[in-house]
TrEMBL record:
Originating organism: Streptomyces flavochromogenes
Phylogenetic placement of the source organism: Bacteria, Bacillati, Actinomycetota, Actinomycetes, Kitasatosporales
Protein name, entry field: DUF1876 domain-containing protein
Domain of life: Bacteria
Pfam family, one: Rv2632c-like
């Protein structure tokens, strides 16, 4: 059987001075939504490169989303199997 499923991740960035904040959201096909955040701080001696702050903050938000998705999956495995699964990190 071939099933095609798509997720869309929304990312927003806010920059204030030397700090970049990222907010990420994904909505799964079962209607579950996960939201996550990440931050990056530019050292005062570093050049002003907004894209780099977005990449770091965005990556941290996506890592948070990944952790939440793994937890959800393992909870579902545990409910069906009746035993405790172990997250691979």
């Amino acid at each position: 059987m071939h099933t095609l499923v798509g997720w869309h991740v929304e990312m927003e960035f806010q920059e204030e001075g030397d700090r970049t904040r990222a907010a990420a959201m994904v909505r799964l096909t079962d209607g579950t939504e996960f939201r996550a955040h990440g931050t990056a701080n530019r050292h005062p001696s570093d050049p002003d490169q907004l894209r780099v702050g977005e990449e770091i903050a965005g990556a941290r938000a996506l890592m948070d989303l990944a952790s939440q998705l793994l937890q959800k999956a393992h909870t579902e495995i545990d409910e069906v199997s009746g035993r405790t699964s172990h997250t691979i990190r």
